[in-house]
Specification:
globular, Rossmann fold, about 20% strand, 5 helices, 5-stranded parallel beta sheet, alpha/beta
Length: about 120
C-alpha cells in the first residue's frame, strides 16, 4: 500500500480519483491546488503524486516542476492527470519532471498501469 497525494481543484474529480486509488488499496491525501500540493508533498512525503494541470494559484506543470526540482521531494514520482491531451502538453509535462501522463476522463486500467509502473521504480 502506497500513500498517494491527489492534487485537483475539482471536488468531483478529486473524489473520483480518491475512490479509484483507495479501491486499488492505497492511502490517499488530497490538495486543492498546485501550491497546496507542493506544500503537502514537502510536509507529507507521499510515495506518489497524481497532479491535475489546470488549477489556480500554481498550475500542475509549475507544481510538478517544483516537486521534481526540490531535493526534499525530487524522489516522489508525479503522474499528470489532466484534460489537456495535446502532444505538446504531454511533452511539456514530461519535461517538468512527470513520470507519466494520463488524460481525463480517466481510464481505470491506464491509471492503474501508470501507478504500478511509477511505484515499482
Amino acid at each position: 500500500m502506497a500513500r498517494i497525494l491527489i492534487v485537483d481543484d475539482s471536488p468531483s474529480q478529486l473524489l473520483g480519483l480518491k475512490r479509484l486509488v483507495e479501491k486499488l488499496g492505497h492511502e490517499t491525501l488530497t490538495a486543492e491546488d498546485g501550491a497546496a500540493g507542493v506544500e503537502a508533498a514537502k510536509r507529507e512525503k507521499p510515495d506518489l503524486v497524481l497532479m491535475d494541470v489546470v488549477m489556480p494559484n500554481l498550475n500542475g506543470f509549475q507544481a510538478t516542476r517544483a516537486i521534481s526540482k526540490d531535493a526534499a521531494t525530487a524522489h516522489i514520482p508525479v503522474i499528470l492527470v489532466t484534460t489537456k491531451d495535446q502532444d505538446t502538453d504531454r511533452v511539456w509535462g514530461m519535461r517538468q519532471g512527470a513520470k507519466a501522463y494520463v488524460t481525463k476522463p480517466v481510464n481505470e486500467a491506464d491509471l492503474t498501469k501508470a501507478l504500478n509502473e511509477a511505484l515499482a521504480k
